[in-house]
Task: inverse folding
């Protein structure tokens, strides 16, 4: 593609496909169905195409994934509360969120709770059916001895991704419950590498995704000042730009890091120091003719890279994309939407043809 | 559906579905509903509601396996048949976290062969090297088995596939700490760095090993690391990894060590005039540790070269640094 053209229409169609279905070859991705739905919904929202979304139906479905306390004993398996990835466990469809029975293996996943709440927010829901106390208490139980956060109750991996998800949950519900903020912040700091970035776990190699999770989490906790030398982190982040952004030293650039690294810089107040043109150039060489963005040029697009490609462009204030909130990863809902000059885009297309 | 969407859908269906096509061993699948040993179990279907979004287009095999597994999770039955079913399920849905915990519960309760389990995990990791749940499952099995004897060879095989696979390193970091396997690690990572000094994961791991997970003070290991790092830098001056590695030590250096470092880097600057790294390192030394008026002047010159020629991507950053250093000069 020689001329940089933002294919808004194609991207809308791309996300619309995933809004409606998950194709069979990737049926096993249903264990992340809520996050894929989030990419589709927020993607369409970013593109100003919310008319494609049947909000009421989506909201019903999202609420039906909420695990609420047991009707007979609200302490029974209370650590399981929150949102599922989808109806995998086989419970009855319960969008009213009435209390029924809790089961050992029917568990919320912190990333699904985060994306469920995000979807509801974007669609303008008022969280009326959220059992706030149950969600906050269950999420707080995911915190480990060392301050880290697990994905689900029981035995599960713990890493900075889940730290971030839990911090957003507390922020959305305006309630940090019994979550130990000091311990969590110290854990995050212990993930900082010798070169300034943050690894996924302590001693882990500095990585763009985990650095975002670290920085955003600290910001949400109001503990950004615990970072001993913010300039050192900013240096690491800025050096991740080759053309687009790489996730680690000596690795090729990848579209999604235009968001992970870009949003981190935005939070630390240094985004304007990047090279806008090179970043834009890279994201565009990953734009697919049929819609969506891939991680590298000439590879296939996927919902995650498509979504973060758009977020990456939004950080640069381009193409009439609404501003994202770098802490949440979706549109800043407090701001007015920019007007989409669709007619102008079409005229320019005609001129070229 | 629009034309575009039809093409998109067709392309999605042609996706290389490693997870299903390649993982399924038996070409002829016997539906679980037709298996005698499952006669007494009532499968549980999924209730997706009247108008679900992101509708999953399940294959019959997937749907039926999940229906029976749902019944098993509900009943929490631990038995040979549920252990077997969990394997079938995980081959189809390898990211279903809770299924791994259920499977471990069966394995541990029934004294299942954990060494065989490690075999199975590796087979799946071969196809899905970045699956978080598989790596975690392996960790839990090895922990229970309390036997790490196969793990180094396993990691060596995984590294052949991708020596930068983040999971490989997270796992090794855990393994070495858990079983206190520090002894051979320095030799190991030096060997890897000989083969590929550009692999940043190697450098990060070296740091972990020499500091023994940040328990050994930097002062103790500096001289050894200085020798090692500059041995590599002289071979490849534009490699970022060793530079950021050694720059981490600057804060603990005494006057004499700072001078030695400075002279070494300055020598490299003269030999490799187009490289950004000696300039960047000297800039840091001059503005933070060896602050004199002359050095700040040099720092300004280097910042100019970096922004205009050798590190143009960070032009705006260097313009900002110039302003900061000019102010620093004024305040001297």
Result:
């Amino acid at each position: 593609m020689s001329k940089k053209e933002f294919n808004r229409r194609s991207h809308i169609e791309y996300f619309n496909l995933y809004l409606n279905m998950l194709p069979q070859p990737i049926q096993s991705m249903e264990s992340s169905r809520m996050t894929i739905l989030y990419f589709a919904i927020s993607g369409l929202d970013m593109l100003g195409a919310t008319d494609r979304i049947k909000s009421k139906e989506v909201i019903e479905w999202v609420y039906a994934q909420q695990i609420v306390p047991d009707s007979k004993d609200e302490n029974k398996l209370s650590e399981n509360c929150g949102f599922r990835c989808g109806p995998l466990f086989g419970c009855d469809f319960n969008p009213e969120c009435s209390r029924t029975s809790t089961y050992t293996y029917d568990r919320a996943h912190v990333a699904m709770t985060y994306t469920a709440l995000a979807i509801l927010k974007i669609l303008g829901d008022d969280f009326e059916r959220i059992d706030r106390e149950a969600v906050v208490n269950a999420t707080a139980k995911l915190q480990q001895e060392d301050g880290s956060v697990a994905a689900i109750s029981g035995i599960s991996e713990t890493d900075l991704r889940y730290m971030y998800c839990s911090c957003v949950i507390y922020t959305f519900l305006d309630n940090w419950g019994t979550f130990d903020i000091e311990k969590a912040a110290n854990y995050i700091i212990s993930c900082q590498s010798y070169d300034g970035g943050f690894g996924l776990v302590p001693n882990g190699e500095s990585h763009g995704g985990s650095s975002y999770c670290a920085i955003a989490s600290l910001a949400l906790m109001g503990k950004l000042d615990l970072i001993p030398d913010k300039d050192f982190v900013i240096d690491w982040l800025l050096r991740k730009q080759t053309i687009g952004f790489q996730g680690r030293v000596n690795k090729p650039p990848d579209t999604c890091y235009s968001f992970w690294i870009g949003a981190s810089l935005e939070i630390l107040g240094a985004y304007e120091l990047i090279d806008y043109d090179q970043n834009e150039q890279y994201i565009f060489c990953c734009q697919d003719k049929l819609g969506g963005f891939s991680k590298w040029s000439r590879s296939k697009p996927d919902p995650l890279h498509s979504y973060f490609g758009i977020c990456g462009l939004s950080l640069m204030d381009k193409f009439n994309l609404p501003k994202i909130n770098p802490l949440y990863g979706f549109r800043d809902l407090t701001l007015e939407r920019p007007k989409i000059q669709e007619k102008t885009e079409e005229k320019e297309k005609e001129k070229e043809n | 559906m629009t034309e575009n969407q039809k093409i998109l859908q067709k392309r999605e269906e042609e996706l290389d579905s490693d997870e299903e096509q390649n993982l399924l061993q038996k070409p002829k699948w016997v539906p679980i509903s037709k298996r005698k040993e499952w006669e007494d179990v009532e499968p549980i279907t999924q209730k997706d509601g009247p108008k679900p979004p992101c509708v999953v287009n399940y294959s019959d095999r997937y749907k039926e396996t999940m229906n029976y597994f749902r019944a098993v999770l509900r009943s929490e039955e631990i038995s040979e048949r549920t252990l077997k079913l969990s394997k079938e399920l995980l081959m189809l849905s390898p990211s279903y976290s809770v299924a791994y915990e259920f499977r471990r519960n069966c394995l541990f309760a029934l004294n299942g062969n954990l060494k065989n389990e490690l075999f199975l995990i590796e087979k799946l990791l071969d196809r899905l090297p970045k699956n978080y749940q598989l790596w975690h499952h392996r960790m839990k099995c090895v922990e229970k088995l309390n036997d790490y004897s196969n793990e180094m060879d396993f990691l060596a095989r995984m590294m052949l596939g991708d020596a930068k696979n983040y999971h490989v390193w997270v796992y090794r970091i855990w393994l070495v700490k858990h079983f206190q396997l520090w002894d051979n690690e320095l030799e190991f990572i030096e060997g890897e760095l000989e083969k590929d000094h550009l692999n940043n994961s190697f450098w990060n791991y070296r740091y972990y090993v020499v500091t023994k997970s940040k328990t050994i003070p930097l002062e103790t290991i500096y001289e050894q690391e200085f020798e090692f790092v500059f041995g590599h830098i002289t071979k490849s001056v534009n490699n970022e990894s060793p530079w950021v590695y050694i720059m981490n030590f600057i804060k603990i250096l005494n006057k004499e060590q700072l001078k030695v470092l400075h002279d070494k880097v300055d020598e490299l600057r003269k030999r490799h005039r187009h490289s950004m790294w000696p300039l960047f390192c000297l800039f840091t030394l001059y503005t933070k540790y060896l602050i004199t008026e002359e050095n700040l002047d040099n720092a300004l010159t280097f910042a100019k070269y970096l922004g205009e020629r050798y590190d143009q991507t960070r032009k705006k950053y260097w313009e900002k640094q110039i302003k900061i250093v000019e102010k620093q000069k004024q305040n001297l």
Q: What stands out?
A: The mean pLDDT of chain B is 94. Chain B touches chain A through 82 residues (CB under 8 Å). DSSP finds 17 helices and one strand in chain B.
